[in-house]
Amino acid sequence: xxSSRLPLPPGPKPRPIVxxxxxxxxxxxxxxxxxxxxxxxxxxxxxxxPMRSIVILGxxxxxxxxxxxxxxxxxxxxxxxxxxxxxxxxxxxxxRYGPRWRAHRQMLRQHLRPPHEYAGIQMKEARAxxxxxxxxxxxxxxxxxxxxxxxxxxxxxxxGLSKAVIPGAYLVEFFPILRHxxxxxxxxxxxxxxxxxxxxxxxxxxAPFLEVKAAYNQGKAPASMATDMIxxxxxxxxxxxxxxxxxxxxxxxxGATYAASADTTTxxxxxxxxxxxxxxxxxxxxQSELDRIIGxxxxxxxxxxxxxxxxxxxxxxxxxxxxxxxxxxxxxxxADDVYKGYHIPKGSSIVPNIWAMLHNADDYPEPDxxxxxxxxxxxxxxxxxxxxxxxIAFGFGRRGCPGKQFAISTLCIYIASVLHxxxxxxxxxxxxxxxxxxxxxxxxxxxxxxxxxxxxxxxSEAAARLIRDA
Length: 470
Ligand code: HEM
What we know:
Layout: H1 29-39, E1 44-49, E2 52-57, H2 60-68, H3 81-85, H4 99-111, H5 119-135, H6 140-143, H7 151-164, H8 189-217, H9 225-237, H10 242-278, H11 280-294, H12 302-307, H13 309-321, E3 331-332, E4 337-339, E5 342-344, E6 349-352, H14 354-358, H15 390-393, H16 404-421, E7 422-425, E8 441-443, E9 447-449, E10 455-458, H17 461-469
Parallel strand pairs: 2-6
Antiparallel strand pairs: 1-2, 3-6, 4-5, 7-10, 8-9
Helix pairs in contact: 4-10, 5-16, 7-8, 8-10, 9-10, 10-11, 10-13, 10-16, 13-16
This protein binds protoporphyrin IX containing FE.
Cofactor: heme
Keywords: Heme, Iron, Metal-binding, Monooxygenase, Oxidoreductase, Signal
């Protein structure tokens, strides 16, 4: 039986022409997606927007069945013309599934080293954060992201991206030929938007790589993923036509890695601080564990952080409790498919509701409570019987996050370092009023806590000395 004769998955009733465009939630969409799953008693939901179905996956099992098990047809991405007009398609995370995407992903796989090789840098950065917070705790949130020279560019370019992917907002998505109309023609919103953001996006794409390349040419660049790429391309392709082609790919990959890692890691680091301020008993327990294992005369190292199960459990619980990407990065289907008797059309957008999977009470009882103990078994080690949230939080299948291990080890050393020397409380704002913390999340594609605590005080004079001497 042809799959298109089967019904689509259930969902809110679409209206003629516009479909469900007016039903689409814009604030914390993951909550509405979850509600639809309950209303229609299905872990797979379909909503229609002009020209496309959006299929929402509400359970881990559905995500595994489709995005992992059938990854040969579930690894595409929706093409957004406005994204291309802004030059955001340099980021291979948004490329269609095919040879161009594969060449980029392979370049990253070849040159992103195993996590332990970055441990030294991660520790150094964690300690620099401790020092900055010791000096000006009020600026804690700023310190989490200020060590990056391209922060402002990332912020503006990211704003452009989130405007570009609003479903149904631009006529050019339905008639791509319109992209060639110049911006002075009335009504060409998309062109104006693209012209406004493209220079920032191109800077994000080019600047990190070009800076390293210039330093490398002067013999001054410390070894990094970018220098590895430059060396590899020079050794293999110098003087051939491929040289510039591969260099362009390397530049895209370095820019994309930068863009994909900065805000995500910052978001998780903020959520951790929030959880500690809201759950002081978790904080106390982790601190006594650190005191027992590390003592008070040195700071933790990456080896300690990975070897203390409770620190790892706090990292896992942070990624679960307040997921960085609550509905992942949508995939798309490159062929028709059938699942549970439903037709999944080719070209559908497939949205894994990561928030719902990580807040499912069957896997994680009392899901809204921050409770890292849930991951610790009788033996005191990580319990393999509790579903590891990092299987969900970093996406699925061939598109799954290539920076997952890097991100986890960054988080572990950061968490151990902060807890070892600071007590974390809400703190007071610039007007001297206590910061009001809530477990509410803000954002869409990328979520953050609304407020981040800034009441970080050294646990003792000895702790303050450790920070200053580091
Ligand atoms: C807490 C930190 C992070 C989280 C929660 C996170 C999460 C994700 C998710 C959910 C996706 C989409 C996966 C899918 O399509 O199913 C993704 C993609 C991606 N991530 Fe991460 N990520 C993090 C950190 C990083 C880091 C540190 C890097 C770089 C080393 C990175 C590089 C990428 C790239 C390049 C993609 C696009 C992959 C593709 O489309 O082929 N991410 N990430």
